[in-house]
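User: My advisor asked me to double-check a structure prediction for Triple QxxK/R motif-containing protein before group meeting. I don't want to rely on an old file, so could you generate it fresh from this sequence?
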Amino acid sequence: MGRKDAASAKIPMDQYRKQIGKQDYKKTKPMLKAARLKAEAKKTAPGIKEVSLILVAILVLLLACYAFFYLNLSEEDDLGLEKDGN
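Assistant: Sure, here is a fresh prediction for Triple QxxK/R motif-containing protein from the sequence you gave:
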């Protein structure tokens, strides 16, 4: 007989879920649609970290190319100066 009384009492989690459901039901359709679109946009938008990492990678690549060509051209110029100096 004690079981019947225990089953009628609701656990706090069920009460919380019921309250959340009531709150969502009170919202109008445009509000729900706007919230859903905002969540989707947040998921699909690239983050600042990803964009900054890509820009840094491109900058490093350009600097590496610049350094490679600078060192190759400076070596040729140094060899040319030594020949003229002798």
